[in-house]
Amino acid sequence: MKKIVAFLVLFTFIPTNAQQKLTEYFTVNLGYEYWNGNFGKVGTDLFLVQKNNNILTFSANANMGYMKDKFRIMPEVGAGYMFNFSNNTGDPYSSNISSAFYVIRAEVSPWTITPKVGFAVLSLLEINAGYSFEFRNNDNFKDMSGIRAGLTIHLPTQLF
Predict the structure, then answer these.
(1) Does the domain formed by 2-14+23-159 have CATH 3.30.300?
(2) Residue among 77, 103, 56 at smallest CA distance from 5
(3) Digit-coded pLDDT (tens) for 44-70
(4) Global pTM value
(5) For residue 51, how far is the Cα from the chain centroid?
(6) SS3 content of the chain, % helix, strand, coil (to 5)
(7) 117: which strand partners?
(8) 105-135: per-residue pLDDT in tens?
(9) Of 34, 143, 141, 47, residue with least CA distance to 101
């Protein structure tokens, strides 16, 4: 477990610059998650927007669904990085598009760790996929290792 925590700390602080000012935004997550079953996903994110408009994300979520004929809630926390590339080649079709983000994320539940990659539009609608590695078995759940994919809507709290 210490190695997982060390990996997450290293993963989240590699792209930052100590002198860089970050702008904070909170979002509410709503989504769907396929994780060896169908789950609804609810949670919150902290977005730390860098000067180059790339975003560090920290999340706390609850995956809710039925497993072994019982309603289950599986908590998880995550950290990620949303980034885009500026195209300075003069291509008129891609040089001005900076609203699409690539996403790298790691999510940890009490039973699994899941690295994910994905794509986000305007940092609001995110499609991602990854592979879940089970590091602790739980008799109440079925095997949680395997392919995981999701669709998440991030609603900024400034809207409310």
Answers:
(1) no
(2) 77
(3) 999 998 887 788 999 999 999 888 788
(4) 0.75
(5) 21
(6) 10, 60, 35
(7) 104, 129
(8) 999 999 899 999 999 988 889 999 999 998 8
(9) 47
